[in-house]
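Below is how a single chain appears once it has passed through the pipeline. First comes the sequence as given, then the structure the pipeline wrote out for it. We keep one example in the README because the format questions we get most often are answered faster by looking than by reading.
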Amino acid sequence: MTTPVQERAPVDTTPEAAPPLLELRDITKSFPNRIQILGPIRLIVNEGEFVVVIGPSGSGKSTLLRTITGLTDVTSGEVLYNGRRVWSVNHKAALVFQSFALFPWLTVMENVALGLEAQGLPKPERHAKARRYIDLVGLDGYERAHPRELSGGMKQRVGLARALTIEPELLCMDEPFSALDALTASNLREQVLDIWLSKQIVTKAVILVTHSVEEAVLMGDRVLIMASKPGRILADRAINLPRPRRPKSREFEEQVDQLYSLIV
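Resulting structure:
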């Protein structure tokens, strides 16, 4: 009697999908007085996305960035980067502050190279790398200047160059244009977009916090709308407008009106 041959189950050779660049799993943040600032928040950010976060003051936008970069611990939930939980400062991320946060006694070169010094790179190597990003943001020739000798827009360019010099995969920006005059802010927005779209940097995604709906529509691929008490995401909207975007166009104004209608 012949024993029937059992067929072996086919091996699944389909490659597993790569995890998202950033994932927030029901994160919350409360202060010691038990006031809940954030959450719960769920969010996925994939490579190639420029995500803008808008919402009223007190909705936890800056706190959200600090939890994403690991500068602030979450009270509950998980922050995952490339599928791995973030337990401390995320060295694959960088944060550009609203207030420039430059050291006044250091030159432009020294401020920009500061993160590389912390990484232990030799001086010639960190200065060569810093010089590339100083040139990229339009500050070539100002390497030896001190912050007191720079305008507000130039100081923010130093902050941007410092963040880019450590070559982060995730670039976070906390209202980087709000302290600038209208013309300077407009020029710097265009420069940030040019750098991002030119693929001259290794950064894989950008998260920008702003109070300006117009700025969100101008720059973002996605816009997250937050509400307060506690801070949470009310809506996640894609901006499907071709670049470069025209703020005076009907399509642009329609997107702005739609986002305004969602803000509480």
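DSSP finds eight helices and ten strands in the chain.

See the next section for the split statistics.
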